[in-house]
Design brief:
- The chain is an alpha+beta fold and about 350 residues long.
- It has two domains: about 150 residues, Mog1/PsbP, alpha/beta/alpha sandwich (Protein Transport Mog1p, Chain A), CATH 3.40.1000; about 180 residues, Protein Transport Mog1p, Chain A (3-Layer(aba) Sandwich), CATH 3.40.1000.
- The protein is built from eight helices and 19 strands.
- The protein has a seven-stranded antiparallel sheet, with helices on both faces. The chain has a seven-stranded antiparallel sheet with strand order 13-14-15-19-18-17-16.
- Strand 4 and strand 5 form a beta hairpin.
- It starts with a strand and ends with a helix.
Length: about 350
């Protein structure tokens, strides 16, 4: 059996490569996901924020058992166990309170509920009644870690793995057979700046003396999206007669997104995969006006930068597009995310 590392909302664990996302709800604070193989549901993961320093895990488990009972027909035979000791290694329990459980109905399930920091997590592995689940269960349980405070958060879906800076929170996702989207936003930073202009500079505008300028709210520290398209040859089919099919496809596909930006485009080939980087700054109505006060305002109120990094992966026959909008660190953010993706 082949294994891989799966990550979501700061939680990481090892899973068989044949298990994939089949259900998803909630957000990074409180959510649920399910992984299936070709035969049945295999893993459920639930997480929730808590303000309690020592939450009652038994009470939480009682509520979880109630949900399981509701999924079965009235009168169906179910048995539950708690305080099941799956893991012997004392290091596993450092920094978290752990409670093991199991239940049996038409299927068998083994699970852990644990509290670490400000999060309660439930992980449950399911199998057929006569299936030997123990080796799989132990490997998954021993591998589960909480990385919500790590510099990067791992996100996984359908063979795509990407590391995103911690300050970016998942806003929405779209997970389709030929298209994947992860869209993130960073925490908003509201600010105001008071700029004192010289008398001569202010005379050129309107008033005498001091001008008070309130800078507009920063849109956020940044927005970030990662997309994967496939098959690439289908996406580029209408542009094969152009000098650069990938760039032509991009400009047609993202015409609305790049409107209002002036771009510098660079390209290079890495391991036979074509890469394009586009860095653009937002154009402004007063561009070209040589007024000192305007230039001062422009310097103090940084222009929004839009960065795209896209490439066609020939081995996987897919196109990857990373986009970041920010007035601080768009280029470095895109670079970090691109380096985290293994496209084949």
């Amino acid at each position: 059996m082949d294994w891989t590392v799966f990550g979501w909302a700061g939680i990481q664990l090892e899973i068989p490569t044949t298990w994939e996302l089949s259900g998803l709800s909630g957000d990074q604070k409180t959510g649920y996901l399910r992984l299936d193989d070709a035969e049945m549901p295999r893993l459920e993961l639930k997480w929730a924020h808590t303000r309690r320093k020592k939450p009652d895990l038994h009470a939480t488990l009682d509520e979880y058992f109630k949900l399981i009972r509701k999924t079965y027909k009235k009168g169906a035979e179910l048995s539950f166990r708690r305080n099941v000791n799956f893991i012997k290694d004392p290091e596993f329990f450092e920094g978290r309170t752990v409670l093991g459980f199991s239940w049996k109905g038409s299927i068998r399930a083994n699970g852990l509920i644990f509290h670490a920091g400000k999060r309660i997590t439930i992980v449950q592995v399911m199998g057929r009644l006569k299936e030997n689940l123990r080796p799989t269960v132990l490997r998954i349980f021993q591998s589960i870690t909480d990385h919500r405070d790590a510099p990067q958060t791992l996100w996984s879906a359908y063979g795509l793995k990407l590391g995103v800076p911690r300050e970016y929170k998942l806003e929405r996702q779209k997970l389709l057979s030929g298209y994947l989207l992860f869209a993130f936003v960073a925490k908003k930073e509201r600010f105001q700046s008071v700029i004192k202009l010289t008398k001569s500079a202010s005379d050129r505008l309107r008033n005498n003396g001091t001008v008070e300028y309130k800078a507009p709210q920063s849109p956020d520290r940044g927005s970030l999206s990662i997309e994967r398209y496939g098959p690439a040859e289908v996406m580029l089919n209408d542009y094969t007669d152009t000098p650069n099919p990938l760039e032509t496809w991009f400009r047609a596909k993202y015409a609305k997104a790049i409107r209002g930006y002036g771009f510098e485009v660079t390209s290079h080939t890495d391991a036979e995969d074509e890469h394009l980087t586009l860095i653009g700054q937002q154009t402004r109505l007063y561009d070209g006006i040589p007024l000192t006060p305007v230039l001062m305002l422009d310097k103090l109120s940084k222009r929004t930068t839009l960065v795209f990094r896209l490439w066609r992966c020939n081995d996987s026959n897919r196109i990857y597009v990373i986009q970041s909008i920010s007035n601080t660190d768009a280029s470095s953010t895109v670079q970090k995310v691109a380096e985290s993706i293994e496209c084949h």
